[in-house]
């Protein structure tokens, strides 16, 4: 067996299952889960219809590169969304089966396992980054998020001898779980470091279309173009339809950026078997070409966060994030209680599931930056999220 499999930790939701083992939640309350970031808004009817209308695609083998029509559609969306002058659909775009599998696979493409490589990750983080590093024969290196810097990792504090070993840097903007968005200055620092040390940047942007300010979050390709890096050297952006269009089960996304890296990534994926179904490609074209359903979806999230956040601010240290659909709350300001105990008791007493923040992070520099925080995914309809918030308020009052 691959010895690197032994380095993988249980997924956060497996830890949560173990935490709740043997607990019978209070039957006076119906169950509400804020634990998993799975979109619960209805899938737009036109996307389902586009999928149903193209089932003949099931009779043909798809190409790994996807259809010209899909790549051209994605390139057009990138140009509209980020104000880019030109994206080459033939060389700078590749469809993928959701951002998760592509985030994992990129590490296998760009890392030489004999190079004593480091893979830099934000902390807290999406656990795929860590698993991708280990299974590529590398070692993850975690940079803690800093609440004083809007939860941005302090990359400037990383020592030179660490940067010299970094081959791949994962980041998430808007962030999971913090919701923070990188600024143009943040990007300039990372691009300068990438130029100096030669590492690849993997920008996970799957939450980019859920935001609360009038202006949309800055994207990595957009930042590169603004800084005169129109060929996107050593930069790959990852985007998905799952959150944007409420189709997590469709497994549709794309990667875009450095054409030289994407050429090698296509070679890897041709062997891996990462081709998207032609039927899903047709539905994806319909989704990327429509913005009205995205505007409506974003409005629902804005309504939820506007109503839920003030309720929780009565009892928790929590703020409206820049973007995304998570609230990242500190829970220990009123009582000596850990994030794990908070989640366990909330489930037992009020039948509400939240995810302990320490499950989403690792100890780095003597700190687990998720400790004494919880992540709440406001993915259900507004009434259910409000009910959960009221229960959390009641529960916190008992501490």
What can you tell me about this protein's structure?
This protein folds into two domains: 3-42 and 293-396, Aspartate Aminotransferase, domain 1 (Alpha-Beta Complex); 60-290, Aspartate Aminotransferase, domain 2. It has helices at residues 12-19, 45-52, 68-82, 99-110, 127-135, 160-163, 184-197, 220-226, 241-245, 259-272, 278-288, 292-313, 339-350, 382-396; strands at 32-33, 93-96, 118-123, 139-146, 152-153, 166-172, 200-204, 235-240, 253-257, 326-330, 352-353, 355-356, 373-377. The strands form three sheets. Strands 2-9-8-7-6-3-4-5 form an eight-stranded mixed beta sheet, with helices on both faces. The chain has a three-stranded antiparallel beta sheet with strand order 10-13-12. A two-stranded parallel ribbon has the order 1-11. It is globular, with a radius of gyration of 21 Å. Helix 2 runs antiparallel to helix 11 (278-288). It is an alpha/beta fold and 399 residues long. The N and C termini lie far apart (47 Å). Strand 6 (166-172), helix 7 and strand 7 (200-204) form a beta-alpha-beta unit.
């Amino acid at each position: 067996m691959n010895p690197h499999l032994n380095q993988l930790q249980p997924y956060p939701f497996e830890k949560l299952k173990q935490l709740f083992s043997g607990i019978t939640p209070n039957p006076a309350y119906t169950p509400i889960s804020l634990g998993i970031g799975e979109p619960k808004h209805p899938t737009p009817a036109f996307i389902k219809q586009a999928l149903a209308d193209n089932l003949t695609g099931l009779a043909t083998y798809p190409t790994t590169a996807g259809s010209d029509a899909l790549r051209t559609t994605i390139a057009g969306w990138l140009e509209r969304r980020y104000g880019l002058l030109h994206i080459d659909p033939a060389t700078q775009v590749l469809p993928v089966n959701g951002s998760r599998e592509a985030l994992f696979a990129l590490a296998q493409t760009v890392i030489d396992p004999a190079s004593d490589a480091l893979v830099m990750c934000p902390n807290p983080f999406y656990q795929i980054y860590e698993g991708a590093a280990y299974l590529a024969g590398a070692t993850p290196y975690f940079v803690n998020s800093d609440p004083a810097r809007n939860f941005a990792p302090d990359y400037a504090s990383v020592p030179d001898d660490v940067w010299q070993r970094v081959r791949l840097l994962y980041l998430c903007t808007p962030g999971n779980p913090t919701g923070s968005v990188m600024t143009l200055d943040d990007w300039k620092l990372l691009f300068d470091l990438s130029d100096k040390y030669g590492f690849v940047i993997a920008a996970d942007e799957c939450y980019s279309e859920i935001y609360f300010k009038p202006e949309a979050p800055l994207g990595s390709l957009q930042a590169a173009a603004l800084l005169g890096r129109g060929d996107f050297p050593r930069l790959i952006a990852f985007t998905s339809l799952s959150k944007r269009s409420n189709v997590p089960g469709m497994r549709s996304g794309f990667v875009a950026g450095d054409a030289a890296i994407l050429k090698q990534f296509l070679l890897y994926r041709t062997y891996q078997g990462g081709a998207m179904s032609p039927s899903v490609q047709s539905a994806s074209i319909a989704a990327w070409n429509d913005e009205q359903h995205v505007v409506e979806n974003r409005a629902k999230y804005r309504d939820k966060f506007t109503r839920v956040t003030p309720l929780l601010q009565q009892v928790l240290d929590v703020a409206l994030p820049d973007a995304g659909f998570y609230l990242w709350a500190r829970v220990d300001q009123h009582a000596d209680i850990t994030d794990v105990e908070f989640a366990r008791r909330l489930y037992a007493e009020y039948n509400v599931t939240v995810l302990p923040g320490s499950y989403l992070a690792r100890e780095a520099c003597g700190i687990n930056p998720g400790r004494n925080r919880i992540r709440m995914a406001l993915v259900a309809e507004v009434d259910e999220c409000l009910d959960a918030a009221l229960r959390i308020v009641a529960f916190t009052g008992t501490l």
